[in-house]
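Re: that chain you flagged

S.,

Sorry for the slow reply, it's been a week of failed gels. I finally had a moment to sit down with the sequence you sent. For the record, here it is as I used it:
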Amino acid sequence: MNLSDLEAQTGVRGLLSEHTDVPFNKELFDAFNSHERVNVTEKGLVRLWSYKPDYVINNPKQVLELLERFSGMGGMPVNTLKQSWPNVMTAITELENEGKVLVLRTESVGAKEGTPKTVFYDQLGCRENLGPTRGALDDEFREMWHSLQTPPVHSLPSELQEAGLTSSTSANLKPQQTTRKPKKKGGKGGKVKITNTHLKDLGIDLSKDYVPNKK
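Prediction finished late last night. Pasting the structure tokens below so you have them in one place:
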């Protein structure tokens, strides 16, 4: 759009002199032109300005390719996609109906569906010839699955033991730690009396210097 339309749409004044296409404030005009989010396109004598989005998306195919590119990092916020393409919800709804994307919504209130928050690339749904079925299981596998019988609750422990398995409850039990009573420490600074009564019988007095008898 041109600057006159931009001023009329946004209500921002000061880029142009009144009723002219001449810049009113050159410093503001130059800053606007050099902004990282502004695209400037010149067609002959006509200069147009547009918003520079993070991603160039204009159709469902480009949206799906973008989601696939970022699938390893999770989904993409819907608000981020809207900044790049205001009408992106039309493409998201179409891709969701085809089973190619998964949409995370806020909690629904009554009959009103929740607001879309995040879109995920559905790798399984995008496989060839699967479409919205998202890789539904074949009948043979379903029959085999439902044919498996679960043992009664009272016989589960013995069944697990025979199979060499343990229940999750017993596996998560932590060994009980035995608490030991702390030993009482002796009083500090207590005096200990040492007696050597057997030495006295030999005529040795430890309170004096001991001199051995010469033979």
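What I noticed first: The first strand starts at residue 38 and ends at 43.

Talk soon,
D.
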